[in-house]
Q: What sequence folds into this?
């Protein structure tokens, strides 16, 4: 089983600038602004959130995930050798790994696993934070992704902002204030248990907040991003090497791989029955993109959500989200259609041993047929492993890592990219 796990609930990052916004509101209340009605609490409100690190709930989420994964996969662990568990030096990623293995193995987890923390900083390669080796990803993360999100914010928050401005006295309440209030609601809830900002907004406005996140992630790391495939391809190549039980192909082409670590079987083993990796939300999204899960590829317009869109970040990459990839060995081929009769034989007579791959996203099956027609329509959502590996043979070429990450190309407008690579490569 191969696990790619996002860190647990955390405080805001510095890049979200919520501390600055909190000080702005507190300064306004200390001067001449008098908030009334539902905003009256702001007259005495104090911004009390930390920055970047896991909150208590985040530690609990990863510990509980470790327990659940032990129930599901603990029997696969080979106690004759220690697992190499991969994470990064970013505090919330490292602590997430530590809390997970504490849940999986117990507090004496060091008897069963070694945590390998790759340096997460510019100038250092790691598949678990590949953007440090992909300079052009900053272009996706910038105005290209924020502009359509801001356009949507202006639409879904227009009415609420007008109402809140009427309660803000001398303070000029804007759409940005409304959006920041929604963000603080989320962070205060996971860190303090409750937030007075949450009741300020109705259900439709919270749906709008969620869709704003969908737009940004799709443009920054998904199929609408010109570097979406490139950001995730390194982990995909590592995953394939481990599935095929072979060393990482250090000459296969440019990626964000740490070749020093990947060339060493001690730091990049390929014979484990369990692989546990810990990373960021953008990497999970980009891995799904690099693998080619087209069910998440629909264009998300800034005018509003399309009906039945599949890429919902609150379901795909919430705090503590994870992808479990099961490699299943069966003594015979398994029927595409499963009988409901409990005594029915699931196997196809006369066939030999067959391997399958099963993707689970946050404990829900990702049906392979939805993105890979070669897998065939199956009740279980699986794909024959050999078929899936054939599909992935071109994944590195499709990602165009070198050109996407360091090439000179025009980024264009949001909507010009549909397959996770710069538009002219399509």
A:
């Amino acid at each position: 089983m191969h696990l790619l796990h996002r860190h647990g609930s955390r405080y805001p990052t510095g890049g979200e600038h919520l501390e600055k916004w909190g000080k702005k509101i507190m300064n306004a209340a200390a001067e001449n602004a008098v908030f009334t009605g539902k905003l009256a609490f702001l007259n005495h409100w104090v911004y009390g959130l930390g920055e970047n690190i896991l909150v208590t709930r985040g530690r609990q989420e990863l510990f509980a995930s470790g327990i659940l994964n032990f129930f599901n996969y603990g029997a696969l662990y080979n106690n004759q050798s220690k697992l190499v568990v991969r994470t990064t030096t970013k505090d919330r990623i490292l602590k997430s790994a530590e809390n997970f293995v504490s849940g999986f193995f117990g507090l004496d987890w060091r008897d069963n696993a070694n945590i390998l923390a790759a340096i997460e900083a510019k100038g250092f390669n790691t598949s678990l934070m590949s953007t440090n080796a992909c300079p052009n990803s900053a272009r996706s993360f910038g105005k290209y992704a924020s502009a359509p999100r801001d356009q949507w914010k202006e639409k879904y928050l227009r009415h609420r902002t007008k109402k809140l401005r009427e309660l803000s006295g001398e303070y000029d309440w804007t759409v940005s204030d409304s959006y920041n209030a929604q963000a603080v609601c989320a962070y205060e809830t996971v860190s303090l248990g409750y937030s007075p900002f949450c009741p300020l907004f109705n259900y439709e406005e919270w749906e709008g907040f969620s869709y704003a996140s969908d737009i940004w992630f799709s443009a920054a790391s998904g199929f609408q991003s010109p570097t979406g495939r490139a950001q995730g391809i390194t982990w995909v190549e590592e995953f394939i090497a481990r599935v095929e039980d072979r060393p990482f192909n250090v000459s296969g082409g440019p990626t964000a791989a740490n070749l020093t670590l990947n060339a060493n079987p001690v730091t990049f083993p390929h014979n484990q029955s369990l692989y546990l990796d810990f990373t960021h939300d953008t990497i999970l999204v980009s891995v799904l993109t690099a693998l080619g899960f087209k069910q998440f590829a629909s264009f998300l317009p800034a005018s509003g959500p399309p009906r039945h869109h599949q890429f919902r970040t609150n379901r795909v990459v919430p705090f503590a989200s994870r992808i479990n990839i099961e490699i299943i060995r069966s003594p015979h081929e398994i029927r595409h259609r499963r009988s409901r009769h409990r005594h029915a034989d699931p196997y196809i007579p006369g066939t030999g041993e067959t391997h399958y791959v099963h993707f689970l996203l946050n404990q829900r099956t990702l049906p392979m047929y939805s993105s890979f027609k070669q897998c065939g329509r199956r009740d279980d959502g699986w794909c024959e492993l050999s078929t899936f590996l054939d599909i992935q043979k071109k994944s590195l070429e499709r990602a165009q890592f070198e050109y996407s990450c360091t090439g000179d190309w025009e980024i264009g407008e949001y909507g010009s990219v549909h397959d996770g690579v710069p538009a002219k490569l399509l």
Q: What stands out?
A: The first strand starts at residue 2 and ends at 6. Residues 17-54+140-221 form one domain. The beta strands are 2-6, 83-88, 113-118, 275-279, 322-330, 354-361, 364-365, 383-384.
